[in-house]
Design a protein that fits this description.
By secondary structure, the chain is α+β, with helices and mostly antiparallel strands. The chain has helices spanning 24-36, 74-92, 112-124, 134-140, 160-173, 216-222, 298-305, 308-329, 331-339, 390-404, and strands at 15-20, 42-45, 62-63, 97-99, 102-106, 130-132, 148-152, 156-158, 177-179, 186-190, 193-198, 201-210, 230-241, 252-255, 267-270, 276-279, 283-284, 350-362, 373-377, 380-385. The strands form 3 sheets. Strands 5, 6, 7, 13, 14, 15, 16, 17 and 18 form a 9-stranded mixed sheet that branches. Strands 1, 2, 9, 10, 11, 12, 19 and 20 form an 8-stranded mixed sheet that branches. Helix 2 (74-92) packs across helix 10 and helix 8 (308-329) packs across helix 9. The relative contact order is 0.19.
């Protein structure tokens, strides 16, 4: 349980730890740190006026099982453990969550070997999953068309923004601070540790953790590090089923993903607050916080387009990328992709929904960094790649980071 009382601290007092970024990974790290080191001083600095404004607040709310990820990877290890932690935290804090189950559907015979590979990965990672035929698929999701499928009964849904609000409460009850409207503008070494400057002045910390998501590579560079990989923002656009058509989806319905492309394809997600989300596609965002085509930041766009790794990735995946852009511009094309899974879907069943932006680390050779990436830079720990399933895994990632801090 969360205990203690919030302690106000002056700018001049050196903190044991400062965490930059108030998304779910930053807050989960703070929560785990105070559990491991009760009584230590901790501050979370968030540039927005509230927590969970960007990736976390635009998350579709899936509690992932870990079935897709390479056994032994940080994603596989943290997802399974993190899901159990997240469910336990939600139960303890009276946050609603639900295990609605997931089906991963092969729509052609050619996809069955890929489906079998996913099954093998899931079983190797200890995920509860099974191969099912068309009759069992029809029982679980009557409106789905496929030739084979996997069933993952433990997959679930939750509201991650609500989780973050509760994590903030717990951190403050344990004596930590979560300060919003505090954009960090520089990180430099000092005699007593790191000096982090915001508009209110300078704060000193023995150690710091960079959990800035869409800006994580720049935060590392700000502290004197070299960007070995660069964040390239991809916008994911969604539709929602109209209330009259929500019966077409009971739980979570996913296609067989392209193993060469680290996105799961357009899918159907029943949400904990009601409704069914459909998507996302994946298109280059014109700003790191670019949720529409009209959101344009010249510096952000130049940062992507001037990077050789981006053009190597584009050369490798241009056909897929063109299809993603076309789905962004054409609702008809988006509907066609969704109808591969549910043939009954028509354009009139869909209404526009808010988009999200994924912070994807891209290596210089053009490969998309597939696993979580955490690196040490003197007294600063950088979380440099934490895409899905980072929200599911957040409490496990936070535990992993806390274990690396002295």
């Amino acid at each position: 349980m969360c205990q203690g009382a919030q302690q106000e601290r002056s700018l001049n007092e050196r903190q044991d730890l400062i965490i930059v970024g108030g998304g779910i990974v930053g807050l989960a790290t703070a929560y785990r740190y105070l559990q491991k080191f009760p009584g230590r001083s901790l501050t979370v600095l968030e540039k927005e006026t509230d927590v969970a404004v960007h990736q976390t607040g635009h998350n579709s709310g899936v509690l992932h099982s870990g079935i897709y990820y390479k056994p032994g990877s940080l994603k596989a290890e943290n997802c399974k453990r993190g899901k159990a932690y997240m469910e336990a935290f939600c139960a303890e804090q009276n946050i609603p969550f639900e295990r609605v189950g997931k089906v991963i559907v092969a729509t052609s015979e050619a996809q069955i070997p890929l489906l079998n590979n996913i099954l093998e990965r899931g079983q190797a990672s200890g995920v509860e999953c099974e191969s099912i035929g068309v009759e069992r698929l029809a029982e679980i999701e009557p409106h789905v068309r496929g030739v084979a499928a996997l069933h993952v009964p433990g997959a679930g849904i939750v509201d991650y923004a609500r989780v973050c609000r509760r994590l903030r409460f717990c951190i403050e009850e344990a004596g930590g601070q979560v300060l919003t409207g505090q954009e960090v503008t520089s990180i430099t070494p000092g005699l007593q540790g790191l000096i982090l400057r915001t508009r209110d002045g300078a704060r000193t910390a023995k150690h710091a953790v960079n959990c800035t998501g869409l800006h994580s590579d720049r935060t590392m560079e700000m502290a004197g590090g070299k960007r070995t990989a660069r964040i390239v923002p991809f916008r994911g656009e969604y539709y929602e089923l109209t209330p009259e058509s929500e019966h077409l989806c009971r739980g979570l319905i996913y296609p067989v993903p392209d193993p060469k492309f680290p996105f799961l394809g357009v899918h159907f997600t029943r949400m904990i607050g009601g409704g069914v989300e459909c998507g996302p596609n994946a298109v280059l965002a014109l700003a790191r916080e670019g949720y529409t085509w009209g959101d344009f930041n010249p510096a952000d766009l130049w940062d992507a387009l001037s990077y050789g790794g981006f053009w190597r990735m584009a050369a490798r995946h241009w056909r897929t990328g063109f299809g993603e852009v076309w789905r962004s511009l054409s609702k008809k094309a988006f509907v066609k992709a969704l109808s591969e899974l549910i043939p009954e879907i028509e354009a009139e069943h869909l209404t526009s929904a808010p988009a999200g932006v994924r912070a994807q680390a891209l290596a210089p050779d053009g490969t998309m960094v597939d696993d979580f990436l955490i690196s040490k830079q003197d007294s600063l720990l950088n979380v440099l790649n934490a895409p899905s399933p980072a929200a599911t895994s957040a409490l496990a990632i936070g535990e992993t980071i806390a274990d690396r801090l002295p």
